[in-house]
Amino acid sequence: MMSVLGGFLRTGVSFCHSALLESARHFSTGLCRRIRMHAIPPLKVTDRWTEKRSMYGVYDNIGILGDFKAHPRDLILAPVWLKGFRGNEFQRLTRKKRMVGDRMMTADRHNLEKRIRFLYRRYNRYGKHR
C-alpha cells in the first residue's frame, strides 16, 4: 500500500514540476554570433564641397573685416519674421501672423490660423511645454 502511495506521490511531484517548467516563458533574442569581417570595409566617398559644407563659416569673418558693425542675421536673405528667430513652430506662426497677417490671402491666413489653433491645443495638452 505504501509503495503504491509513494508511486502516486512521485508521479504527482514530477507532473507538477514539468507543468511549472512548461508554464515558464522562454524567449530568445537570437544567436549571439560574432560578426565576421573578411576585410576592412572601404571608406565612404564624401563630397567635401557640397553646398552645406562649402557655406559653413561664411559669416565668421564679417566682424573682423567689417569692424563688427554688421550682424550675420542682417545678411541672410529670408522673410522678416524669420531673420534671427529662434523658437518652436507655434511661436514662429504667431510671429508671422502678427507681422504679415493683415496682408495675407484669405485661404493662407485661414490655414495659418487653423495651424495655430491646433498647435495651441497640442502644446497645452501634451509635452514639456506645460
From TrEMBL:
Subcellular localization: Mitochondrion
Keyword Mitochondrion annotated: yes
Q: Which UniProt keywords apply?
A: Mitochondrion, Ribonucleoprotein, Ribosomal protein, Transit peptide
InterPro entries given in the database record = Ribosomal_mL51 (IPR019373)
**Record flagged with keyword Transmembrane:** no
| MF (Gene Ontology) | structural constituent of ribosome
Instruction: Kindly state one GO CC term assigned in the UniProt record.
Output: mitochondrial large ribosomal subunit
Q: Which GO terms describe its biological process?
A: translation
Q: Which family does it belong to?
A: Belongs to the mitochondrion-specific ribosomal protein mL51 family.
Its protein name is: Large ribosomal subunit protein mL51
